[in-house]
User: Fold this.
Amino acid sequence: MIKVYYRLSNLEAGISKKKIPNATKKHCLENCILEFGLENITILGDKLNNETKDYVNSLKLKLIEVNNGTGSETFRDALNLAIEECNEEDMVYLLEDDFLHKPNAKKLLIEGLSTYDAYVTLYDHPDKYINKENGGNPFIQQGGEVTRLFKTKSVHWKITNSTVMSFAAKVSRLKSDYDLILKNSSSNITDSFSFFTELSKTKGIPVISSIPGFSTHCEALWLSPLTDWSKI
Assistant:
């Protein structure tokens, strides 16, 4: 089992971002329910209006309301709640409200976490294929990153230098890296790149990413490649 801590803002929030047409807050949440199960999801709702609260309650989801106004504070709330509620060997998924998942996402996250003491993502971030001089990831040259490739029963994985602050981990891992996580989420915006690169450098703990991606952040310019996400 894997428990999802889902960071939700109001239904109309973020509409100025250029997202794919099906990436509404409702559709992303309903996709998460489909893939991970209603009973495994806790919503952390930040300053929700009545419309959004009524929608969440209509789905019979567990809702915890917070009054932050910044993504980093709600991320820390989700992190702390996961640590407080779960045992050390439990698997948790700290997730933003603008992701989509393909079928078998839950199975693959569990496979990754059962095999490696690592942070696991299904988001094959396209910045890993854009050279740094062209605005991509600072470590990318010749259209790719230096990595190691391996597989579990169902999918291939690569070690990647970073991902966004939507990832899965065992609670024991979160506890071990807690101070470093807080260090990189103390401002209004979380600094995922600094967190993961410092984690790798100081502790040798990797991030592993499925290839191809089985999830995506829904901004149109940053979709996991090789999938038509408008059909998910």
User: Anything to note?
Assistant: The chain is about 30% helix and 20% strand. Residues 1 and 84 are 17 Å apart (CA to CA). Helices lie at 25-36, 50-58, 71-85, 105-115, 171-176, 178-183, 192-203. The radius of gyration is 17 Å.
